[in-house]
Amino acid sequence: MASPDFSVLPSVDRLLEDPALAAAAAEYGRAEALAGARRALADARRALGAGGALDPSSLGPAAAAHIAARGRPSLRRVFNLTGVVLHTNLGRAPLPQEAVAAIAEAAGNCNLEYDLETGRRGDRDSHVEALLTELTGAEAALAVNNNAAAVLLVLNSLSAGRDALVSRGELVEIGGSFRMPEIMARAGARMVEVGTTNRTHASDFEAAIGPDTGCVMKVHTSNYEVVGFTASVPDDRLARIAEAAGAPYAVDLGAGQLVDLARYGLPQEPMPGQALAAGAGLVTFSGDKLLGGPQAGIIVGRADLVALLKRNPMRRAMRLGKLSLAALEAVLRLYRDPDRLAERLPALRILTRPVEEIEAQAHRLAPAMEGAEVVTVASRIGSGSLPVERLESRALALSAPGGKALEARAAAFRRLPVPVIGRIAEGRLLFDLRTLDDEDAFLSQLAS
Ligand SMILES: *Cc1c(COP(=O)(O)O)cnc(C)c1O
Q: Is the pTM of this model over 0.85?
């Protein structure tokens, strides 16, 4: 075999003069252009060494492609057409314009912990506390990084070195390795399991509670349901038992909603205000589940208990950043106008989209996607919210001969400039259109 002719390869400097590379250098800088040129030359040398041929004019574009790939941000927008509305892996609730504007406003300097009246140090919770108390009827409120942190902070503040009582039917795993027994252990609380998996009675709590009880905990079983021969203790009863023993009653709602979803024709989830009215001392819930805001954990409840939480040194390690805080404030403000909430809050808009509208969209889009059929599907709310509820929807369905070919088609959609994420079910690739907001952007990608 003839030895490869490396003399066809240009020098790095010559390659840098290629118009494709010159453009890449202008956009990404000389260092990136140089690295891209070296990478393209190394690839070409390997290809020649393996007996391949080389078209020298391909080197510039190949280098530019390497540079562009490195320049693309890792965290990117995608089309979530999976049929799971609040998809934890795809960023949960899409934020409203108002929140996006608030994030931009807070991105520079802002009065994060600065009191503009007095010119002294302020409190970062002040930006959301009044809204949260107004919307839930609580005496006080604070926000942390996510609901997992909220639960950890509550347990540690109330029950470190003491008993935390919880029903055996509520020892949940939320996903992403959030398991209640492990969180309790890390919070320093001694978990006391009460009752049985399917039935827990008031008398079980009365027998377990005592001077060592730091708190009585109720965990909303958000991602599963216990059905059949079951019993649990109602909030108000449990709150009274806890109060009689001088222990706070804390409720982790998970996906707490701030408006009655029945008003929008959606199934009901328990609301923080209801748990507080029933006697809960503290209630925790997520900012980016049914609330429709940014990732955050919200704690509302009695002023003395919230003050205790704020004094916990752990709090500092869980505080919410200014961008999330700005978004949360903007989202909470939308709740002051429930009449327009379903138009303005994307999560609620998506959940309440009429199926006729989705169907019309499906028929508009189907001709643009070769081989697509319009099919009836059921969207899920996601993030463990209302796990057994389904929302009728329409999807574009693509078929392919065999599972491998279907996987390949799904992968091709994920490689689009704005990746399109569907799901494979019953031998078809499905794109649930309930969550498709930007139809024009979607169409223009299909056309190219
Ligand atoms: C989702 C959930 C959590 C965790 O909330 P994140 O905001 O994801 O940290 C905790 N408890 C319950 C009951 C949940 O549903």
A: yes
pLDDT digits (tens, 9 = 90+) for 90-146: 999 999 999 999 999 999 999 999 999 999 999 999 999 999 999 999 999 999 999
Short-list 150, 202, 433, CA closest to 309: 150
Q: How far apart are CA 203 and CA 217, in angstroms?
A: 16
pLDDT at 84: 95
Which fold, 97-344?
Answer: Aspartate Aminotransferase; domain 2 (3.40.640)
Q: Does domain 79-89+346-447 have CATH number 3.90.1150.180?
A: yes
Distance 174 CA to ligand 1 centre (A): 6
Chain centre distance of CA 183: 20
For residue 158 and ligand 1, the question of a CB distance below 6 A is answered with no
| Phi (first) and psi of residue 110, to 5 degrees | -150, 170
Q: What is the pLDDT of residue 1?
A: 55
**Interatomic CA distance for residues 303 and 235, integer angstroms:** 20
Which residue's C-alpha comes closest to atom 11 of ligand 1? 254
Q: Which two structure tokens, joined as six digits, stand for 310?
A: 């704020």
Residue listed under structure tokens 């038992």 = 241
Contact 153, 309 (CB under 8 A): yes
Report the nearest-CA residue for atom 1 of ligand 1: 254
Q: What is the DSSP letter of 321?
A: P
Give yes or no on whether 79-89+346-447 and 97-344 have one common fold.
no
**Ligand 1 atom nearest to 297, measured from its CA:** 7
pLDDT at 384: 67
Of ligand 1's listed atoms, the one at least distance from the Cα of 222 is: 15
Give the pLDDT of residue 8. Answer: 87
d(CA 271, CA 264) in angstroms, rounded, equals 15
Closest CA to ligand 1's atom 7 = 147
- Can you tell me whether residue 112 is helix, strand or coil? coil
Give the residue ranges of the chain where pLDDT is below 70: 1-2, 222-223, 384-388, 448
Task: Report the alpha-carbon distance of residue 303 to residue 98 in Å, rounded.
Answer: 30
Encode pLDDT of 38-87 as tens digits: 999 999 999 999 988 888 899 999 999 999 999 999 999 999 999 999 99
* Alpha helix ranges (H) inside 160-216: 180-186, 202-208
In the numeric block, the tokens 């992968």 are attached to 411
**Domain boundaries defined on the chain:** 8-71, 79-89+346-447, 97-344
Which of 170, 174, 180, 217 has the most ligand 1 atoms within 8 A of CB, as the residue to mutate? Answer: 174
Q: 194, 201, 198, 204: which is closest to 230 by C-alpha?
A: 198
